[in-house]
Amino acid sequence: MTVPDIRTLWFRGKSAPTARVRLLCFPHAGGAAGAFHDWAALAPPEIEVVAVQYPGRQDRFHEPCASTMEELADTITTALRWELTDDRPLALFGHSMGSSVAYEVARRLEEDPSHTLTRLIVSGRHRPRLPEEQAPRPVPTDPEVLDYVRLLDPEGADLYEHPELQPLIMPALRADFGLLARYRPTHLHQLGVPVTVCGGDRDPVCTIEDLKSWSDVTPKGLDLRVFEGGHFYLRQRQEELLAFIAAQPA
């Protein structure tokens, strides 16, 4: 029997009728749901993998990108209520910018009885910084964004240099970096669920101490796992990462 795809405005995945939990995945800055395309095949049957498709990229290219973290998190939380209507428990996984988005959605889900949140899993990013810790930054210029991308992803940076692809890639990347530059929550919300943190041992922008900083958002305990690799370690460590995620207590 063919398993139907999950394809709504905001979510992409493949149905797993026997899954005990839905793993909702949030892409990095400039990224799209396709970053998690292979995860459904690699995940064990008890996990249904669904990725978030932000506006302004791929098949949502002509929609405006979110301008603030609050707007993005609010609309995703609303979409969960209307587009994924079953009561299957949710675990959230975010990488890089997606970690911050996942944290903000987790905050909102704890006040939403329509879904049960079991765990937040963040990757390759420090916890949100408060205004007194770091003031909002100027929105970076395109050359500054591209320099940062080269630092994070030296193997994949050539894609951003291609003159025919730049008009398709840069609007979302520019918008996401602007969103992050403005994002400074006024306080840290304590989540009522455990937090798992993952990262690469050679990440040039996210240190082990940055990963440990997520302990400030949960009294439920912090599980930390460091994988071999750089900022995008998860591309080479997909199977290892998914096995680790699957082993986390529900």
UniProtKB/TrEMBL annotation:
Give an example GO biological process: lipid biosynthetic process
Superkingdom of the source species = Bacteria
| Gene3D superfamilies hit by this protein | alpha/beta hydrolase (3.40.50.1820)
Among InterPro entries, the record links this protein to: AB_hydrolase_fold, TEII, Thioesterase
**Which residue range or ranges hold the Thioesterase domain?**
22-247
Note the PANTHER family from the entry: S-ACYL FATTY ACID SYNTHASE THIOESTERASE, MEDIUM CHAIN, THIOESTERASE
Q: Which family does it belong to?
A: Belongs to the thioesterase family.
Q: What is this protein called?
A: Thioesterase II family protein
